[in-house]
């Protein structure tokens, strides 16, 4: 007789990673499907990681003490308000583990980060997806209306993955103040470094006992392969995340690389500026072709392709571009990471041949 698998696990939809880069007819090959930073690690990062590798026979610092102190100093918070795990997705899982019980509800905008429904289902909670509003933005009024006595967590992704817009600061602050104090509000800011809008969220003005901010080293810092994410939260919540996290989860090379990355902020900002320039060029080029591209404050752009999603994604792939199609309705579309200038030029070239 087979071992019974818990229903919440047996029926969970698998996470779909971005496809590897195909090779186009002219040899072009660019992976624009996973929102990775196209640049190599920042100066000093490889050296720091290599030094840490020499001690791989020892366990890493389970408390992540040096990295925690550096992050606390960066954000002006106490060490006890920082909790790390293996990427912000793992932080999300740990956060939900700390508060969710059977019958609870978790609200989030949809479409948003595809890991949300998976993480919620694994806890035994019920997902409450709230459709996006005009311009692929969070409909905060609808989210407030969806709150019930069973609501336990609300997820807000800003900039939103995969559509790109931010939730303006004042709207987010007003939203937070209207939510019950016993509901955890998780603000997922994985792409915050790419946001340039004057009204983007300001962390210092949103701090509440029930508000958690998630950040990652995977995107702007270019450490996707090392899996380092963290949250800033009330000490009680941060302590619970540390308790739920896998012991020794963040490896010694990952900790060293993250520390070195924090020390290279000037180089980071220069790279981010280049990606923002490329993003602007891609958004402008796609709009000039007549495509209804929403504002993007992240390192990707969103093409709301609808029923043409699969066909258009195949056109990009045939040219050597791996993009990320989301074919399920509603809000089917294609997410394209901002990559190297050559890749971005090819994106616009292919987009100009797409048939409506």
Automatic annotation (TrEMBL):
InterPro entries: Aminotrans_II_pyridoxalP_BS (IPR001917), Aminotransferase_I/II_large (IPR004839), ArAT (IPR024892), HisP_aminotrans (IPR005861), HistidinolP_aminotransfase (IPR050106), PyrdxlP-dep_Trfase (IPR015424), PyrdxlP-dep_Trfase_major (IPR015421), PyrdxlP-dep_Trfase_small (IPR015422). It catalyses: L-histidinol phosphate + 2-oxoglutarate = 3-(imidazol-4-yl)-2-oxopropyl phosphate + L-glutamate. The keyword Amino-acid biosynthesis applies. It is an enzyme of class 2 (transferase). Gene3D superfamilies: Aspartate Aminotransferase, domain 1, Type I PLP-dependent aspartate aminotransferase-like (Major domain). One of its GO terms (molecular function) is pyridoxal phosphate binding. Its cofactor is pyridoxal 5'-phosphate. Residues 14-23 have a biased composition (Pro residues). Pathway: Amino-acid biosynthesis; L-histidine biosynthesis; L-histidine from 5-phospho-alpha-D-ribose 1-diphosphate: step 7/9. It comes from the Bacteria. Residues 14-36 are annotated as: Disordered. Residues 30-345 form the Aminotransferase class I/classII large domain. The keyword Cytoplasm does not apply. The modification N6-(pyridoxal phosphate)lysine is found at residue 219. Its EC number is 2.6.1.9. One of its GO terms (biological process) is L-histidine biosynthetic process. Keywords: Amino-acid biosynthesis, Aminotransferase, Histidine biosynthesis, Pyridoxal phosphate, Transferase. Homodimer. Belongs to the class-II pyridoxal-phosphate-dependent aminotransferase family. Histidinol-phosphate aminotransferase subfamily. This is Histidinol-phosphate aminotransferase.
């Amino acid at each position: 007789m087979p071992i019974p698998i818990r229903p919440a696990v047996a029926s969970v939809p698998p996470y779909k990673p971005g496809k590897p880069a195909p090779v186009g007819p002219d040899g072009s090959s660019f992976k624009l499907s996973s929102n990775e930073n196209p640049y190599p690690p920042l100066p000093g990062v490889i050296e720091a990681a290599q030094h840490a590798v020499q001690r791989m026979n020892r366990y890493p610092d389970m408390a992540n003490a040096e990295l925690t102190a550096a992050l606390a100093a960066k954000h002006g918070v106490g060490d006890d308000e920082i909790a790390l795990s293996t990427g912000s997705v793992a932080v999300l899982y740990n956060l939900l583990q700390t508060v969710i019980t059977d019958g609870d509800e978790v609200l989030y905008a949809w479409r948003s980060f595809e890991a949300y429904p998976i993480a919620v289902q694994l806890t035994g909670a019920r997902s409450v997806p709230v459709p996006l509003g005009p311009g692929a933005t969070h409909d905060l009024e609808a989210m407030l209306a969806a709150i019930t006595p069973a609501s336990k967590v609300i997820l807000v992704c800003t900039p939103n993955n995969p559509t790109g817009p931010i939730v303006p600061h004042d709207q987010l602050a007003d939203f937070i103040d209207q939510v019950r104090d016993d509901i955890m509000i998780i603000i997922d800011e994985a792409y915050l470094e790419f946001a340039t809008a004057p009204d983007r969220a300001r962390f210092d003005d949103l701090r509440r006992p029930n508000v958690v901010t998630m950040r990652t080293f995977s995107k702007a810092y270019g450490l996707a392969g090392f899996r380092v994410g963290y949250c800033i939260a009330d000490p009680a919540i941060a302590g619970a995340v540390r308790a739920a996290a896998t012991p020794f989860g963040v490896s010694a090379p990952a900790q060293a690389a993250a520390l070195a990355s924090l020390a290279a902020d000037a180089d980071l900002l220069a790279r981010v500026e280049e990606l923002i320039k490329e993003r602007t060029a891609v958004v402008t080029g796609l709009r000039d072709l007549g495509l209804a591209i929403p504002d993007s404050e992240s390192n990707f752009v969103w093409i709301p392709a609808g029923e043409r999603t699969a066909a258009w994604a195949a056109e990009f792939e045939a040219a050597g571009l791996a993009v990320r199609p989301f074919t399920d309705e509603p809000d089917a579309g294609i997410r394209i990471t901002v990559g190297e200038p050559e890749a971005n030029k090819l994106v616009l070239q292919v987009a100009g041949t797409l048939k409506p």
